[in-house]
Amino acid sequence: MNDIVIDYTNIFQEIIGEENGITEEAITALNNRAKDIHKDLVARRKSGDKPFYDLPYEMEKTNKLIRAAKQIQKQFTTFVVLGIGGSALGTTALLTALGHPIHNNLTSNKRNGACRLLVADNIDPDEFSALLSSLKISDTVFNVVSKSGSTAETMSQFMIVQKLLEKKLGEKWKKHIIVTTDANSGTLRNIADKFKLKSFVVPDAIGGRFTVLTPVCLLPAAAAGLDVIGLLKGAARMDKRCSKAEIRKNPAYLFASIHYLLDTTRGKKITVMLPYSYRLKDVSDWFRQLWAESLGKKVDVDGNHVHLGQTPVNALGATDQHSQIQLYVEGPFDKLVCFLETEKFNADVTIPEGFEDHPGISYLSGHTMANLLMTEKSGTEHALVINHRPNMTIRLPEVNANSVGQLLYMLEVSTAFAGGLYRVNAFDQPGVEFGKQYAYAVMGKQGFEKKKAEFEQTKLPPRKVL
Ligand code: PA5
User: What is the pTM of this model?
Assistant: First the structure.
């Protein structure tokens, strides 16, 4: 098992020029701040304030969860997650990274009896009704995941599904719903207790976007037969590497410091995560939420209005070479590109001989797709460099549970550390809460009458439409 590495050659002035690059000295100059932030994070970890740090060591609980998942596999062929944001994105990232690329289309035998895994993370009626009508209800279990236990999107899905199950299965509906929520509080917990539904706990004080190593994502992952123990082992391995305060000895702190310096001193307001590996495609979607919700803040820790936060964007190589790369290479100088790549693919396909009298394509013969994909990555990297665009690469030895565990954990620690650099609370999400409260109030939730009146009083100008 090897470590993932960060290749950060292409962020420096000597490679991409003074205006867009940073210096080794600038990184070194952050070391004193890094020491303080590290001290604070370590203290908070010890006091139990930041429990996501200790999740890689929850082996006993995870083994219990795997046993529960095995039972689920015996009863059901399809596992549907009802959740949104942090209650959905990690699960999707794990399935794409660690599952068979066509996991849900394989026969049960080929999946070794593991469940198909679907994630319903929206309330679009076209999409949701199509999903429901495609399911064989008697073979399906629904995992309602909500830390707060009240999110309108997830709860509306739950209510629809519960009614459907009751109509089709009568009292047996209770066997088809598994709840993952807070241990003690919230409407969903009350419902789980009242109807004696099988339930799992979102550990206290862990915000949605930091729950990828909790039952929120590990239960669906285990039901789909993914290697959740390997994931935790990889995360624990990264935890060891993140134990040092010095930036160059800590990959998470290095990742955050590069982003921070390029944002605040070189105007790189956008960070693009660009995997050249289909398996890592949804890791960048997961990271997009992590970075955006954690660091996009109105106020700093002293209450000053700062309105900061880098905009995370996700793209995919080589697909987006034909969609986005033109902009990244020649457009505004406002981006840092972070490639994700793997040294080894699980499969490879050789481009066959043929078309010898068509040199326009015959040069491809004998090369493999992996070779072509990684050549294209080098090409994009080179184009960025000669156009003075900072970029870096996170390289995985291969995409497996251990390396993905390392990667996800590193990005979580990075985000916590970046909160310290930007001096914002990386663990709250007042902007998200506003949207939730608006929905509660306008849709008539009890206790939100005052909010509803407030919203109704807000004078909106007449709509301008054409
Ligand atoms: O990261 C977060 O806190 C949010 O994105 C939540 O995960 C999301 O709003 C869903 O919340 P809940 O799990 O309470 O339904």
Answer: 0.96
